[in-house]
Amino acid sequence: MRARYIVPAFAAAAVLLLTGCVDNSTPAATTPSGEASTIEADAAAVALLPEDIKSAGVLVIGTDAAYPPNEFKDESGEPIGWGIELADGIAAKLGLTTKYQIASFDNIIPSITGGTVDIGESSFTDNLEREKQVDFVNYYNAGILWASPVGSTVDPDNACGLTVAVQSNTVEDTDELPAKNAACVAAGKEPIDVLPYGSQDEATNAVVLGKADALSADSPVTLYAISKADGKLQPAGESFDTAPYGITVDKGSDLTAAVQAALQSMVDDGSYGKILDAWGVTDGGIETITINAASNG
């Protein structure tokens, strides 16, 4: 998880638990588009597959399924979301079936480098630090967007002394907020109190319940959280720090080129755009699928 760009808010029904917490686990008005089921194999992409994966006929995909609407769980516990549909489409283009391994976000890259997972689809922001471990097939641009309680005044550029909730190990947690906090301390101002949570719904609930002044997340995720909060949350400022999402693949693997070819084929035949459109996230779509944009961009 996690990247950037402002996108349209979802017209999803607001679902609140009796405790007043936001329930982001099963969106009532967000369902799979079904587009991936119509995608056929691309011979050129299939030809690039490593032989062991081609022989197995299965693409093992790691996801944390806790970052709606990108990837989350349906009522039966199966992963859904627009990122999951893109991963389904990649597998279809490669003539493979999918096997999802749901894991905590910070365990996905180690699973790839350890050989138990083929690719990671979990809204990973491509950055130079992560590129030391894995390769990225870039497929979307997104930005950071903050949210705060309705009626409050929160400026992400003037956040010293605030309490800010994030999902742990996202770029907001590891890069954005530490940098902002260091600037506060260097200026002799009150530090930012960062509250990391294991899932985005927990971070959202912290703001709804008054435990935090604001949350910071990728723009599609923040807008979705706002739409689910029954009018309790508002955007705090505009989207900023646009960066690419990438499918993560083991460093130097031939699978990287195969995934790139599969995604480019989806862009070219329109299935990529249809999936983004169905989920309301077309603003971050791209026309050319790249590899390791953080270092090659």
TrEMBL record:
Residues 1-28 form the signal peptide. Pfam families: SBP_bac_3. InterPro entries: Solute-binding_3/MltF_N. Gene3D superfamilies: Periplasmic binding protein-like II (3.40.190.10). Residues 58-283 form the Solute-binding protein family 3/N-terminal domain. Keywords: Signal. It comes from the Bacteria. This is ABC transporter substrate-binding protein. It comes from Cryobacterium ruanii.
